[in-house]
Amino acid sequence: MEIISKTAEILASILDAIVIVYFLNRYFKVKYKNEMLISAFGIIPLFMIAYYLSDYFVLQVVTQIILTFAYAVTFLKGSKTQKATIDIVIILVMAIINMATIQLVSLFSGISAEMLVQEGSVQRIMVLVITKLLLIFFAYLCLDRVNEFVKLKRDEWILVVIYFVSATVISIILLNIVVNVSMNLLEQIQMISVTTLLLAITAISFALIGKISKDKEYQSINKILKIQLEEQKSSLLKTQKMYDETRKLKHDINRHFTIFLDMLKNNEIEDVISKIEEFVDIKSDNSIVYIENNNMINAILNEKVGICQSKNISFELQVSAAIEKEKELEIAIMISNILDNAIEAELELLIEHKIILEIFRHKGIYNVIVTNNIETSVLKNNPTLNTNKKSPKEHGIGLLSVRDTINKFEGNFDCYEKNNQFAVHIMIPN
């Protein structure tokens, strides 16, 4: 029986580690190619903590949180705030499942909770089987909705962290009470009610987080769709204008060439050259930006090109890489906010108005560089990069959104000045 009990404890600890690492890998995505090898760096230490610190519950929980966070930061994509939150949530759920299982088995079997946590009994093995099945089931339910929790902002994630830290502390206290305090039937029922309430609150919190995240995603998509609709209307008008001009050119071209031919016969070469240059030097505002498979970014860029043309701002675009679909929405909004700031800054200048946007990929990293002309140093006069927008509601929102996007994708943000130009350089891993 001792060998069976030891084997059950080892297998339970291994399963805990596998479920934790698998959940994190599916939620955040592994940075590197060899996922099996990377997973081993998380599973082995988590197994050792779960097995060898089983008699020191608080130390075990704290160490698991630290190791899980270190694994996520080192090997997985995503922001540190999200990783800390999910890390705490996993440990909280495991604590609640363990506590609820021990209470229910104790209530229906009449065996004390203290006996159920001691190695070497059939009841202990039964508790292990039940807790691991519940853990796998809960992990499956959460992974089914994994994409609903990625749109929260940093302050919202902080609130979530505060709640789950509090719930984890409460769970640890309750579990210690269940294990160390003898309770009669009424007290056991009361404790089960408290545990059920805590589990219900956690489930409701997950549902609310998902709803908030989904609402934010819809808001972002609606914003892009509105811009796309306006861009499509503008494109239709431009297409109609181009068609009308083409018809006009087709109608006039024979007449022009007849005139040019007569002038050449009369040796009026200089006049012909002048007329031809005048004829072909047509300044058109019909330029349409198109990046393959990046419709959202196309909509943003065409809108900004139109704004720059209407305000006599030279807009130079250098694109050599398309953004992957998973990141296009956030990066499109980020580019929109940066270009809005650049346009706002250019309108205040007396010198030439010019904006340059570069999008390229180098060594697996997307680079977005927006450059605009300046008259005086921005970094000296406004080191915090506060905006001058008239509406206080809009003040600083664009920059906050940019930083949130960069943090989400674990990118870098840099501002510098060179040759009377201000540049914003953003780097986001592929």
Automatic annotation (TrEMBL):
Residues 329-429 form the Sensor histidine kinase NatK-like C-terminal domain. InterPro entries: HATPase_C_sf (IPR036890), NatK-like_C (IPR032834). It holds the Pfam family HATPase_c_5. The chain crosses the membrane at residues 6-24, 36-53, 59-76, 88-113, 125-143, 155-179, 191-210. Keywords: Membrane, Transmembrane, Transmembrane helix. This is GHKL domain-containing protein. It comes from the Bacteria. GO terms for molecular function: identical protein binding.
